[in-house]
């Protein structure tokens, strides 16, 4: 065990997905130097912003996941090479930082690492660097998660309409099963569960709540990013899904920046009603996980009388409006206006050259 490692604390933020993880990770990346001055180190070895490399390391099938490209790994062989040196690079980086508190963040650790043996080996390897590990995880109601996850799937190319899965053993939605894996490896006393609701956050802020959860005050001078990875509204989501269905997958994969620009434009014009599924479907999903949610509440929130989330009220959730021909025309016009406005604001070639020359001189 490295000298000094026994006095370190590692806060491992494992999600869950769609609980502000992108915003938090960008916050940590943008403020890496400031956080280090406050004795909190956010490493770069597992990834610059999102520590996807941790998940790739934790599971064998990680070498075949497309998520590897987010940290520049193009092939399974490159993932193997990355994994073979990750822990040593991480240890060297942490030693050099001199910080007593380490923070790492990847939401896929909660959704993709689904076997007890993988969690145990991953934790054991991290303990060689830092024996004191404390997991931080945010949870949101399954009826919210399924909608937000579907929106993210459409952004990633999904062409099929949403289908609500009602399998009680689904790791992605069963928080009791998910948390139990980490409890077996670390002990329940080292798991910090928070609820992803503004009225549950310290000071009504996710950022303030996160820092309080890791036993810190919010550092002064923090560069706070705006909300990232927003969801589409009901109309733009169906527009994007339909586009995915029309454009062959091999063409969508090869479009690169063009597709990214289209998705960005759809996010900017997403001002309509939020997407939702039929009320009875979401109510049934809520009922499916009430028992497992109650187990989580009893372990982590004993004062809530076995109630983890507010019960879903299907009367408050009418189905999303359909994407009509008129709405398609309106969205097409909005996309054209958005592109025109951004082109108008774009610096001219001569201005861009002058700006680059100034940057080089600096």
Verbal overview:
The chain has helices spanning 21-30, 32-37, 52-58, 76-97, 108-111, 116-127, 142-155, 175-186, 206-213, 234-246, 249-255, 257-268, 279-288, 290-300, 325-345, 349-361, and strands at 9-13, 40-41, 101-105, 132-139, 191-195. The two termini are 44 Å apart. The model has no long low-confidence stretch (mean pLDDT 90). The radius of gyration is 22 Å and the shape is globular. The chain contains 16 helices and five strands. With 362 residues, the protein is α/β, with parallel strands linked by helices. The longest helix is centred in the first third of the chain and has 22 residues, at 76-97. α6 (116-127) crosses α8 (175-186), α8 runs parallel beside α14 and α12 packs across α15.
**SS-based class:** alpha/beta
Termini gap: 44 Å
Number of β-strand runs: 5
- Name the shape in a single word: globular
Q: Residue share in helices?
A: 40-55%
What order do the helices and strands come in, and which of them pair?
Layout: E1 9-13, H1 21-30, H2 32-37, E2 40-41, H3 52-58, H4 76-97, E3 101-105, H5 108-111, H6 116-127, E4 132-139, H7 142-155, H8 175-186, E5 191-195, H9 206-213, H10 234-246, H11 249-255, H12 257-268, H13 279-288, H14 290-300, H15 325-345, H16 349-361
Parallel strand pairs: 1-3, 1-4, 2-3, 4-5
Helix pairs in contact: 6-8, 8-14, 12-15
